[in-house]
Structures are given as structure tokens and as C-alpha cells.
Amino acid sequence: MTKIFPQSNSLEFTENLIKCSTGYKLGAIRKTKFANGEIAVVIEESVRNEVIVIVSQPRNYEDMFELLETIDAARRSSAKEIIGVIPYLPHSRQERRENGVRTTISARLLADTLQVAGLDRLITMDVHTTAIEGFYKIPFDNYDPFRYFIEEIKNLNLSNLKVVSPDLGGMKRAKRYAKELGVDIAFLMKERLKANEIAEITLMGDVEGYDVILPDDMIDTGGTMLAGINLLHEKGAKSVRIFATHGLFSNNAIAKFATNHNCPFVYTTNTLPAPDHIYAGFKVVDVCGGFHEALRKVL
């Protein structure tokens, strides 16, 4: 029976994953914190010569360090193989240096750190760019929520659909959805000033009278997404539904969506815990079954 060790931020996801198979067992693990803020992780049962799974949904750097400490503790406890299930992989938007700017490539830094800590395999979902896989010397499995979102879209029974890519970089994703649904495609063109801030947004294509599907890999602050949604409604879209894999919802973004009358419908997955306060048009799609399938192939 495979022991699965949840991080303090991922117990619900881990419990849902364990429900997928009788071959999983919840591992005993404890996190403590010192007065100065330092954390310590203790694995409270033997993992010697065992293949174990660690599940983490990091939202901040304490979560990341807890993951690194857990990997290190398992390695020092003679685990045979350490598999990391990290549904949302942080720093995936920082995989290169832009125009020679003196900055870090933090996606590579994270890859090096996880591997040095002792991770043997990584299972994640819908990384921002697949080039990140090249930073890892260990097996790297990148799954996507396509079939889950397609099922949700088809269950809506909307007869006048159009898929709109939120930017040029998302065209490949949008085309895949449009092909599966048998509908046309349009896209939004953005001139970006800096991260989470745009100067201008333009619609390329016709959306008048259509129910729009807007697929993306993540929602962060939601500012650029909401600007695009407002434009789609100005151009005559009947409705807009966002399907985003990772719901970061930074800077109280969920409240911005809840109060924007143009966007009552947001679908995201449970790769990250849902916000504390959600509204009627917000739905979390469970993708734990996909991670179970990934684990079944390697365990």
C-alpha cells in the first residue's frame, strides 16, 4: 500500500486522491513551528525502502520550504523513491530572461532545488510553458484538465459557442477546445506593460450573439482577464465562461469577479485550494482522478 504524505496546505486534495484507490494510505506527518517562524517536518512512520508520494499545493514560500523539508526528511529516512504530486508548479511563468534583463530564471532554480532535496519524480498539471520540463533530469509528468473542462462545457448544452483565446500565447490551447467542440475561434490581442498590467486589448474576430468559452492556464490577479471579458461583452457576447486550470486569485481577485456583472461564470480546478469566499457562478472541478491515473502508471 502506497503511503501518501500531505503537506499542511493539501490535506483535502490528498484525501480526495486517496478515495480514488484502496491502494493508498494517508501517511503520518507533523509540521511544527518555532517561535522565530522556522518550521520543522517530522515523518512519523517508517518509509525505509518504500516508494512514497508527497502532495503539495504551495501558495507561499513557507509552503515551498515545508515541501523541501519533507522531501529531505524522506530521503534521510531511506525512502526508495520520492514522488512529488505538485498540481500547481510555482514560478512557471519565469522560465527565461526577457531581453537580457539582469534577473533570475526562477523556474530553473526551483527545478534544481527540488532535485537536490531528493525528489525522484514530479507529477504536475498544465505548467505555463512545457519548456520547463527541460530543467528537470527526473521524470516530469505534466497532465492537463482538458477532458474535465470539455465535459463541463458539453454539459452546459450551449448551442451558439465560440472559443476565444485570452492572448496569442493561448492560441494552441483555444484551437484544441474549438476543434473538440466543433466551433470557431477568436482571440484577444494584448499589449502588456508589465506583469498583471496591460496597456491595450483588442478583439480579433466576431463574438456578437455567441456564448464565449475562454480557456486559460491560470487566473492570478484577474485584471487582464476581466478587461478582456468586459471587451467581449462590449462587442456583443451573449455570455462569457472562463475555464482556468489554476485559481491563484491574488489580491482579492475573487471579489473582483463576484462583483463584475459581465462575468458570473468561472470554472477552475482544485490544483489549488478554493478561495474562502466564493459565489454562485464559481465552480471547482475535481481533477484528483487524473493524478490517480498518473500514479497508477508509475507505482
Structure, explained:
This protein has 299 residues and is an alpha/beta fold. It has 8 helices and 15 strands. It has helices at 11-18, 61-76, 106-117, 146-155, 171-181, 223-234, 253-259, 288-298, and strands at 2-6, 24-26, 29-33, 39-43, 51-55, 81-85, 121-125, 140-143, 161-165, 185-194, 197-204, 211-219, 239-247, 265-269, 282-285. Strands 11-10-9-12-13-14-15 form a 7-stranded mixed beta sheet, sandwiched between helices. The chain has a 6-stranded parallel beta sheet with strand order 2-1-5-6-7-8, with helices on both faces. A two-stranded antiparallel ribbon has the order 3-4. A hairpin with a 2-residue loop joins β10 and β11 (197-204). α1 (11-18) crosses α8.
Topology:
Blueprint lengths: L1 E5 L4 H8 L5 E3 L2 E5 L5 E5 L7 E5 L5 H16 L4 E5 L20 H12 L3 E5 L14 E4 L2 H10 L5 E5 L5 H11 L3 E10 L2 E8 L6 E9 L3 H12 L4 E9 L5 H7 L5 E5 L12 E4 L2 H11 L1
Parallel strand pairs: 1-2, 1-5, 5-6, 6-7, 7-8, 9-10, 9-12, 12-13, 13-14, 14-15
Antiparallel strand pairs: 3-4, 10-11
Helix pairs in contact: 1-8
In short:
The chain has 299 residues and is an alpha/beta fold. The protein is 29% helix and 29% strand. The protein folds into 2 domains: 2-143, Rossmann fold; 146-285, Rossmann fold (3-Layer(aba) Sandwich).
List keywords for this structure.
299 residues; alpha/beta; Rossmann fold; 7-stranded mixed beta sheet; 6-stranded parallel beta sheet; 8 helices; 29% helix; globular
Percentage of residues in strands: 25-35%
What is the CATH third-level topology name of the largest domain? Rossmann fold
Main sheet characteristics: 7 strands, mixed
Low-confidence stretches: none
Task: Give the % helix.
Answer: 25-40%
Distance between the termini: 10 Å
Number of individual domains:
2
What is the number of strand segments? 15
